[in-house]
Amino acid sequence: MRKELIVNATPPETRVALREDGRTVEVFHERRGREGLVGNVYLGRVHRVLPGMQAAFVSIGFDRDAFLYVEDALPHAVDFDSAEEEDDHGGEAPDADASDRPRIDDLVKEGQRLVVQVTKDAISSKGPRVTANVSLPGRTLVYLPAVRAIGISRRITDETERERLRRILEGFEGGGYIARTAARGASETEISADREYLKNLSEKIARRGENGAGPTLLHRELGLPLRVFRDLVDADFERILVDDESTAARLAELAREVAPALSARIAVYRDPEPIFDHFGIEAEIEGALQSRVPLPSGGSCVIHQTEALVAIDVNTGRFTGKEDLEQTVFAANLEAIPEVARQIRLRDLGGLLVVDFIDMQDPAHRLEVFERFEEELSRDRARTRVLQLSDFGLIEITRQRSRNNLERTLTRQCPQCSGTGRVKTDRTAALDLRRALLRPPNLYSAGETVRVRVASSLAKFLIDEEGFLDEVRTALRVAIELVPDDIEPPGGFSILSG
Questions:
Q1: Closest by Cα among 148, 140, 145, 142 to 209
Q2: Least confident of 68-72, 90-94, 369-373
Q3: How far apart are CA 213 and CA 196, in angstroms?
């Protein structure tokens, strides 16, 4: 697979696109003044303890307090055989028997100072989520100062390599260590240097937190381009193309320190055409904001995000196939699989996802669709759990969510439709207007002219539907003047006098 990183760095915004085989699969945004918090370490102060929810609110210096679950206040054990990937920053604690688990009010008290790390940015109305288990990612290691355990990334599957890394980590003292995917093939000298850097960083954070009153920032994560380079780029990447010389220089400096072999693959993009336009990334981002995704054969995927879940529906559309119905449906599902998996990553869809593949009768076809879909999802860095294809053709997925997805980052609620994605028809709006005019108490004087500002489409409907407001005119003994004005939303109106 051909992989490359495309970086668009401007003063108000930095964007990084990860491309695989010429198609964008992930996009990261960071805007000036609205940088993400994930990975930042704070000296916080416990603001409120909620025993009934087994959680606490922790002030870390923002308008909304951070949320600390009881599981995140306890020391985490590292799963030796399947340590999670590098961007977990503490991640989810394994479920524990509630009867054996300490209560949150036994672990933290109101007013207590507490060093915490952000694991999820504020999403919607929720504040950021934090953990008391600080984890510091480097190039080849994740260092866990408060844990004495070791782990190997689940993405390193070769047992010989896992055993080699295990021996190296077992020789380290103090704290816990997870070998990241980038540790594969790294020398013991490289890994030891990473460990030394992370231990020094941990000690620096501890010193900063010793005398502070809180809330205060103790450690800020790397900026977006450096963070993505550290976490994603490995020997498989062909190039890192950057359209800003100073950003490219910082990347090259980091590469020389942590991955010298990759420094030669960093290049500056100098063409006059914007870099995201040149590679078609702008168009791919625009497409990812649409609900319907066309497929080459004429079929489509329809993606709808709700508060509770994300629904993805696969349709045959214009694709009619050349054989029987079962083969047509099977072919349409197979074609949709890589695109659905790509859209999940590109849009950064998290939480509960339900994919509705077209119903298939053949058990062999159903099994193949599931296995291929599971294989496509295995490329995803985010933790996912996939349930078997149901009798109704549904596949349920849970996917790790740590930041706002693409839709929430780039769009807002529609002020005209209140987020429903639909507006009232002109006939419905006309009936609303009729009721509004007749609704007591009305203060119209006989012979008065009532001016009503309406959207132009509603004005046309009322003119075409002669007599629609005659009953209102007669009942109120007024004249009604329509004032077309597209300051009103579709189906909207305002009564200006009366």
A1: 145
A2: 90-94
A3: 29
Q: Could you tell me which residues come within 8 angstroms of residue 310 by beta carbon, excluding any fewer than 6 positions away?
A: 303, 304, 349, 351, 352, 353, 354
- 253 and 180 share a domain? no
**pLDDT confidence bin for 94, thresholds 50/70/90:** very low
Structure token digits, residue 354: 């339900």
What's the CA angle centered on 202, arms 157 and 101, to 5 degrees?
70
Q: Which amino acid is at 337?
A: I
CA distance 288 to 311: 15
Same domain for 115 and 204, yes or no, is: yes
Q: Tell whether 441 is covered by a domain.
A: yes
**Of 410, 443, 466, which residue sits at a domain end?**
410
Look at residue 421 and tell me if it is in a domain: no
Q: How far apart are CA 311 and CA 303, in angstroms?
A: 6
Domain count, the chain: 4
Q: Any residues with CB less than 8 A from the CB of 2 and at least 6 apart, and which?
A: 20, 21, 22, 238
d(C-alpha 85, C-alpha 169), whole Å: 17
Q: Is residue 29 domain-shared with residue 55, that is, in the same domain?
A: no
78 has pLDDT over 80: no
Give the Cα separation of 100 and 303 in Å (integer): 41
3 state SS of 293: strand
pLDDT in tens, 421-448: 778 899 999 999 999 998 887 778 888 9
Host domain of residue 91: 43-222
d(CA 220, CA 485): 50
Phi and psi at 45, nearest 5°, equal -135, 130
pTM of the model: 0.82
Asked whether residue 241 falls in the same domain as residue 327, the answer is no
- d(CA 415, CA 92) in angstroms, rounded, equals 36
